Amino acid sequence: MKLCRFGQPGRERPGIIDSLGRVRDLSGHLPDLQPEFLSDEALARIATVDVNILPLVTGPVRYAPPVARIGKYLAIGLNYRDHALEANLPIPTEPVIFTKAVSCINGADDAIVQPPHSTKLDWELELGVIIGKRASHVDETSALEHVAGYCVANDVSDRGFQFQSSQWDKGKGCDTFGPIGPWLVTRDEVPDPQNLEMWMELNGERRQQGNTRTMIFGVAQIVTYCSRYMTLFPGDVICTGTPPGVGMAAKPEPRFLKPGDELHLCIAGLGEQHQCVIPYPAG
């Protein structure tokens, strides 16, 4: 299934994507796509709903973050060898975990707001993993059983903020720096999360092209590793790293985002994102 949330902030409703790519309203069957509806059992019940008789959502659709009440937003740094090399940073020997503030989470097509004093705004196309079952000290053979599904994510970053100290969080957690969605694609529709084509364009120019097969640490390894150090709960999100092609590594000189820039991101089977960069509101 491809599940989503749609509507303006504060008025989101749950939806499901039909066979023609249209949004159908699920609010007659569940109040919202909350963490308690991400277990295998709950998703199996949703799967029994006849999509074709659900109300069709017409007109422009704002895709909200696909899960309500996300508890933790974790990310894995430098998880593609070529990206670590382009950043002139060592190849990790174990996953590099950092957090993004949940207040940064944005809808898939919502605007990215450039903060005041930001001069090195950058993009990072990533595979997002949405947890559906509590995970604590799980092993790799069962790790994917704790995943509800997958989504497209953009780990927006300000490199100036990020590298002011050894801690990356303040460069990663600004408001609007966490677009996810448009959909949560359930695990059964992604039999191999390590073979997904992905690409990102800036103003129509291809900047990133990759495949999740080139991750240093795969999804099962990441879920296992994170669960050693913290309990993962339904609704938690993990971004799994970006392939090469970020702005700070552009040649002959870095290419950072500015107001008016348009981003287009895609992971095969998981949907697309479109974002515009806007300035921080005056006053």
Report on this structure.
With 283 residues, the chain is of the alpha+beta class. The chain has one domain (69-279): Fumarylacetoacetate hydrolase, domain 2, CATH 3.90.850. Helices cover 13% and strands 30% of the residues. It is built from 6 helices and 19 strands. The chain has helices at residues 40-47, 81-86, 140-143, 159-162, 169-172, 219-229, and strands spanning 2-6, 13-17, 23-25, 63-64, 73-77, 96-99, 105-106, 112-114, 121-122, 125-131, 147-154, 157-158, 178-179, 184-186, 197-202, 205-211, 237-239, 262-267, 271-279. The strands form 4 sheets. Strands 1, 2, 3, 4, 5, 6, 10, 11, 14 and 17 form a 10-stranded mixed sheet that branches. Strands 8-19-18-15-16 form a 5-stranded mixed sheet, with no helix packed on it. It is globular. The N and C termini lie far apart (43 Å). 45% of the residues are buried.
Summarize the entry for a quick read.
With 283 residues, the chain is an alpha+beta fold.
Q: Top keywords for this entry?
A:
alpha+beta, 10-stranded mixed beta sheet, 30% strand, globular, 5-stranded mixed beta sheet, Fumarylacetoacetate hydrolase, domain 2, 283 residues
Write down the overall mean pLDDT: 96
Based on the structure given, which CATH architecture is correct? Alpha-Beta Complex
> What is the makeup of the main sheet?
10 strands, mixed
What number of domains?
A: 1
Shape: globular
Enter the CATH topology name. Answer: Fumarylacetoacetate hydrolase, domain 2
Head-to-tail CA distance between termini: 43 Å
Order of helices and strands: EEEHEEHEEEEEHEEHHEEEEHEEE
Total number of helices: 6
Bin the helical content: 10-25%
Q: How much β-strand is present in the residues?
A: 25-35%
CATH superfamily: Fumarylacetoacetase-like, C-terminal domain
Total strands: the figure is 19
Low-pLDDT runs: none
Q: Which secondary-structure class do the elements indicate?
A: alpha+beta
Q: Rg, please?
A: 18 Å
**CATH class category:** Alpha Beta
